[in-house]
Amino acid sequence: MHDVAPELLHGPFTREYALALGVPARVLEGVQFIRLHQGVYVHRSRDMTWADHVEAARLALPPSARTTGATRLRQAGFDAGERWPLHFVVQGDLHLTLDGVFLHRTVKTPPCDDHAVTIEAAFVAFCAEARLLDAITVGSVLLNRGALDLGLLEEILSEERWRHGVPETAYALPHLEGRCRSMPEAELFAYVVFAELPVPEVNRRLEVVEGVELTPDLWFEDYGLVVEYEGSQHQNDRGQYNADIDRYALYRRHDVPYEQVTKERMRSPKATVRLVHAALVAEGYVGPPPAFGAQWASLFEPLAHLVRRPRAA
Asked: Which residue, 16, 53, 124, 231, is the most exposed by fewest CB within 10 angstroms?
């Protein structure tokens, strides 16, 4: 068994790099290593991470290739779209097939750094293939965390109108809600708005009693109703769990009605909206019931379909 240089144990590497470290070609093709792509290998002991797969693809692609779309957004810490395939973009008419990689070709490289397109360019690429709901949830959180520069985004939308994803992004942009701190919050807000229920305040400070403020996810001020999203972290994180207990105790103690929407309930969007509607009715709402027509249905359609649909005269 050939002794392996430590540099080859920590992730993917190129054939040229291994040969330069003294690994014979026959050993590289033997049982100690796994070929990931043409000219890219990993030591068999390596437990490949998602980031490793991104690096392996980068090594197999031309130096000008950049991560884009959901892949770029995930690199930045946002749970956007699917993990696979990995999305890269390259300038020119390059035809190269890599397992697990979707290579976008463009006539002009989007704004980028040495390894990835900008968040703004990645969001445009993401919207090209996303549903309206996914664009709203991802875009809202990007705004909330200060990762999406609307000025830079507008430059792409106005100066590169030919770019794939521009009309889809322009369609989604007015629906983003930058006050949403998480994707489930943004999803819940979109459900309420697109079902044509009263539009709530988002994460606005609410003084339940003098000197005591809470920040509910959704606050229907006209009806004094709070709606809170409860994700899995609210159960798994003991600190969060105890903070939630204290928060709901304050709501009850000061007669603030509230409704909890769990991750499990959110799996049925219409049922979630009906739950919020029933809570509003209990607090005096006499307006129209939820509307599950064309506007609602548009949430779950690809943006590419929506921007190409003829508008009614």
From this structure: 16
Contact 77, 33 (CB under 8 A): no
Its CATH architecture, for the domain 197-290, is 3-Layer(aba) Sandwich (3.40)
| Residue 135 CB contacts under 8 Å (≥ 6 apart), including other chains | 126, 127, 168, 169, 172, 175, 303
Domain boundaries defined on the chain? 6-52, 62-175, 197-290
CA distance 217 to 266: 15
The encoded tokens of residue 222 equal 């006209």
Residue 208 has pLDDT above 90, yes or no: no
Contacts of 73 (CB under 8 A, 6+ apart): 80, 81, 119, 122, 123, 126, 138, 142
How distant is the alpha carbon of residue 299 from its chain centre? 15
Q: What is the DSSP letter of 313?
A: -
Alpha carbons 241 and 136: distance in angstroms, whole number: 28
Q: What are phi and psi of 194, to 5 degrees?
A: -75, -15
User: Residue 311: which pLDDT band, with cuts at 50, 70 and 90?
Assistant: low
Q: Which of 213, 211, 189, 197 is nearest to 299 (CA)?
A: 189
Q: Which residues pair with 117 in a beta bridge?
A: 112
CA distance 158 to 84: 30
DSSP letter at 116 equals B
| 99: pLDDT strictly greater than 90 | yes
Give residue-wise pLDDT tens across range 39-89: 999 999 999 999 999 999 999 999 999 999 999 999 999 999 999 999 999
Q: What are 15's two structure tokens?
A: 């054939």
Q: Are 89 and 79 in contact (CB under 8 A)?
A: no
Q: Nearest-CA neighbor of 260 among 234, 286, 237?
A: 234
Structure tokens at 184: 């489930």
> Which tokens belong to 48?
């490949």
End-to-end CA distance of the chain: 74
Whether a cis peptide bond, with omega within 30° of 0, leads into 85 is yes
